[in-house]
Amino acid sequence: MRVLRAVRERVGPDFIVGVRMAVDERRADGIDAPMGLAILRHISGEDLIDFVNVIRGNIVNDAALSEVIPIQGMASAPHLDFAGMVRAELEHTGRGLAVFHAAKIDDVATARHAIREGKVDMIGMTRAHMAEPNLVRKIRLGVEHTIRPCVGATYCLDRIYQAGEALCIHNAATGRELTMPHEIDRAPVRRRVVVIGAGPAGLEAARVSGERGHDVVVVEAMPWTGGQIRLAARNPRRKDLLGIVEWRDAELLRLGVEVRLDECAEPATVIALGPDVVIVATGGLPLGADLEVGHDLVVSSWDVIGGDVKPTGEVLLFDDDGTHSAPAS
């Protein structure tokens, strides 16, 4: 309270001041909801703050952190009803603080619902804006169907901890604005561009080429787009990654990019398309184990995740990378 009084005294009555608070820490020895509400009523009684940014949970470990900042595969807006309860309670007791809230509210429809239903007064969409910095502008322009979705990979947060920079798993310009602008300029000369491969890299190359105004054709050997993303998304925890593919599919359709599926890019095929530029984006391959014997017993994670192989009996998992969990397990 002393800090809040000092802040209010310094900035005056017309300056907006708020607090970000875990109203329920969800731990045995922490602040529970009744206690958190009592604290808020006490703070608001002196008219020191104008809003409260409601959090629910704690960050004592990674598992707890993922409840506060939910990741891919977890429920959308898991604490929205709780924030709505806080707002209703404050209104009921005559403490009309504005209530803000942010926790995996990553799409406009959910944010709009939260405001219209009176759950909160303002929604925070931090990761959503990192994926799509023009989110608000696109809503105002009536083109929210073109908003690049946040897929909850939380690469942005991980990257901050690992390297001190906020990047996005599928918006390369985020965090690199000085060298890679979000707005793509039209090319001075229109060219014929052939992209081989419709995985995430090929789709992005085709999208950027289309935004540049080029005549673009994508050739993909499989009957679908997405490449390894579709394999990864077979894990229920990673299903949200499909947004990377689905958004680009829609963008290519909007840009008039031709996508040829179930077609191998043989030399004659590519030459017949008359390209000025050919972009090869056929993806990587698993690094096979270097074994002297027993190759007939070895299958890759692709084989298992894709359903081509269903191991039986005793299975040994060999991870020669060590930087991630093995979804194939």
Nearest-angstrom radius of gyration? 25 Å
Morphology: globular
Separation, N- and C-terminal Cα atoms: 51 Å
The tally of strands reads: 8
Going by CATH, the homologous superfamily of the largest domain would be Aldolase class I
CATH architecture of the largest domain: Alpha-Beta Barrel
| Beta strand % | 5-15%
Could you list the spans in which at least 5 consecutive residues all have pLDDT below 50?
none
Number of helices: 13
CATH fold topology of the largest domain = TIM Barrel
Helix-strand string: HEHEHHEHEHHHEHEHHEHEH
How many domain modules?
A: 4
Q: Supply the helix-strand structural class.
A: alpha/beta
- Main β sheet profile: 4 strands, parallel
Residue share in helices? 25-40%
CATH class designation of the largest domain: Alpha Beta
**Strands in their spatial order, largest beta sheet:** 1-2-3-4
Calculate the mean pLDDT score and round it: 92
